[in-house]
Amino acid sequence: MTTIDNYRTNVENQWCPGCPNFGIQTALKRTLAELGLAPHEVCLVSGIGQAAKLPHYVRANVFNGLHGRAIPAAIGVHVANPALKTIVTSGDGDLYGEGGNHLLHAFRRNPDITVVVHDNRIYALTKGQGSPTTPRGEKTRLQFDGVEIDPAQMLATAIVHGCTFVARGFAGDIEGLAEILQRGIAHRGLALIDVIQPCITWGRQPIAWYRERIVPIPEDHDPTDRDRAIGLALDAVDSFPIGVLYEIPSGPTFAASYRDRVGNRPLHELERLDRPTIEEKLDRFIVRT
Ligand SMILES: Cc1ncc(C[n+]2csc(CCOP(=O)(O)OP(=O)(O)O)c2C)c(N)n1
Ligand code: SF4
Ligand SMILES: [Mg+2]
């Protein structure tokens, strides 16, 4: 039986004591254990940032890539071995800023991966510059007079672009977050989970400020109601509705048509596909004298 202990490592943790990233880490490990997944069945993928260090602290398969490039790496992992549970766990700057282009098109491609965004509304690793989710007017270490543009609305963008599971969690509510993670990881197709993760070092508001503004999404919310889900996604200014905003059955996943032919086995277990070698292909273009 898998327990949370199977996911423990001895790697020295670099996060500030009390950082809500610890809450996300605990919720994730608990979820993986509760889903009965062994560490070798999971691959955690990240880019660069404080959040992106999470895979270092979990005993599982890991790919820690370049800043903004977690999504293409995760898609590659998933297509190469769909038997793995591929989970991206990275920051708002990494996934919505530098990697925003990849994420936008991943919504359209629908790979079977879970994307967990540690949304502290700041670039924390580089010491407090505004990120795509920093509220307009908020003063930062770079935007001295306040951020001059509105924040990106990635949850609404996800729904509009065909993402079939969209949720918002709070790092200060480990129980609630674990429930959302369970549903997201079990969902077939891309699942986007934005986790409010106050940065207690560079963020402007303390955890208590967020705690006062966290509200569960209404009990009668129908997660298949697209318009209402978009409304709840956008409704995160004075309060933050927490829970599964949107969930509908997914259409074909990115790997599906390829895997229809070759099955779900890892690539290295497959026999060589019957297709021309590079040399055979080049022969068509090279005129030999
Ligand atoms: C290509 C590239 N551009 C910029 C950086 C500098 N950089 C490292 S982390 C980071 C921002 C991280 O912010 P976020 O993803 O929100 O993570 P956090 O530290 O807030 O958890 C930036 C801009 C980099 N390492 N590589
Ligand atoms: S700087 Fe902020 S996000 Fe980074 S570890 Fe410290 S509290 Fe957490
Ligand atoms: Mg951040």
Quick recap:
With 289 residues, the chain is α/β, with parallel strands linked by helices. It has ten helices and eight strands. The site of thiamine diphosphate has 18 residues, from α3.
Describe this structure as you would to a colleague.
The protein is an alpha/beta fold and 289 residues long. It has one domain: Thiamin diphosphate (ThDP)-binding fold, Pyr/PP domains (Rossmann fold). 31% of the residues lie in helices and 16% in strands. The protein contains ten helices and eight strands. It has an eight-stranded mixed β-sheet with strand order 2-1-3-4-6-5-8-7, sandwiched between helices. Strand 7 (214-216), helix 8 and strand 8 form a beta-alpha-beta unit. The termini are far apart. The mean pLDDT is 94. The structure holds thiamine diphosphate, iron/sulfur cluster and magnesium ion (MG). The site of iron/sulfur cluster has 11 residues, from loops.
CATH topology: Rossmann fold
The share of residues in helices is 25-40%
Strand segment count = 8
The assigned structural class equals alpha/beta
The CATH class turns out to be Alpha Beta
Helix count, per DSSP? 10
If you compute it from the alpha carbons, what radius of gyration comes out, rounded to the nearest whole angstrom? 20 Å
